[in-house]
Write a structure and sequence with these properties.
- The protein has helices at residues 7-10, 20-40, 42-65, 69-86, 98-107, 113-124, 132-149, 154-174.
- Residues 1-21 have low confidence and may be disordered.
- It has one domain.
- α2 crosses α3 (42-65), α4 (69-86) crosses α6 and α5 (98-107) packs across α6 (113-124).
- By secondary structure, the chain is mainly α.
- It is built from eight helices and no strands.
């Protein structure tokens, strides 16, 4: 799946058997892995991220037309987490940053950075887990394309997807 997830995202469905600290540890591991992949080929990570931004727009239109704003908010939260991580933004240091403003508006309130991340993470858990297989296929297709064009970057991107797959397994086992 992924933002890739971060896509850390879209990876987050209800996980009854996982504690909040385990969730946050996995989110931080995914974010670190994504940031590591970004140090190799920024354009590859940006491509992958942009694919999922467009998917978020699509899902929001689809769900909002059915009167379901909650799923749109979840997809938006996941993309905001990714944007904060990729751009290394700390909302305490950059309170006027547009991503921080959008996150605080979505969550409601003048929150500290850690509260923003935790709130986005909690909201992102509402992305429907039944979407994971299709999202994984898209993610894997983009990564296959990138690996053919930039073979040296493949290892970092695959490490990120391995972590995403691990989280999905944890989610599935928790249901």
């Amino acid at each position: 799946m992924g933002v890739f997830f971060l896509w850390v995202i879209v990876l987050f469905a209800q996980k009854p058997m996982l504690s909040a600290s385990n969730d946050m540890s996995m989110e931080k591991a995914l974010a670190a892995s994504l940031a590591n992949a970004d140090t190799g080929s920024h354009s590859a990570v940006k491509l992958l991220y942009n694919v999922f931004v467009e998917l978020t727009k699509y899902e929001c239109q689809r769900y909002q037309s059915n009167g379901n704003q909650d799923v749109c908010s979840a997809w938006t939260a996941v993309n905001l987490i990714e944007a904060l991580e990729l751009q290394k933004i700390n909302c305490d240091d950059e309170p006027k940053n547009k991503i921080c403003k959008k996150a605080r508006l979505l969550l409601g309130g003048n929150l500290k950075h850690d509260q923003v991340v935790e709130g986005l993470f909690a909201l992102g858990k509402n992305v429907p887990s039944q979407d994971f297989p299709a999202l994984n296929a898209i993610r894997d297709g983009v990564i296959k394309y990138v690996c053919e064009k930039e073979p040296g970057e493949c290892k970092k991107l695959r490490k990120f997807t391995d972590l995403e797959d691990l989280l999905e397994n944890m989610i599935s086992e928790g249901k």
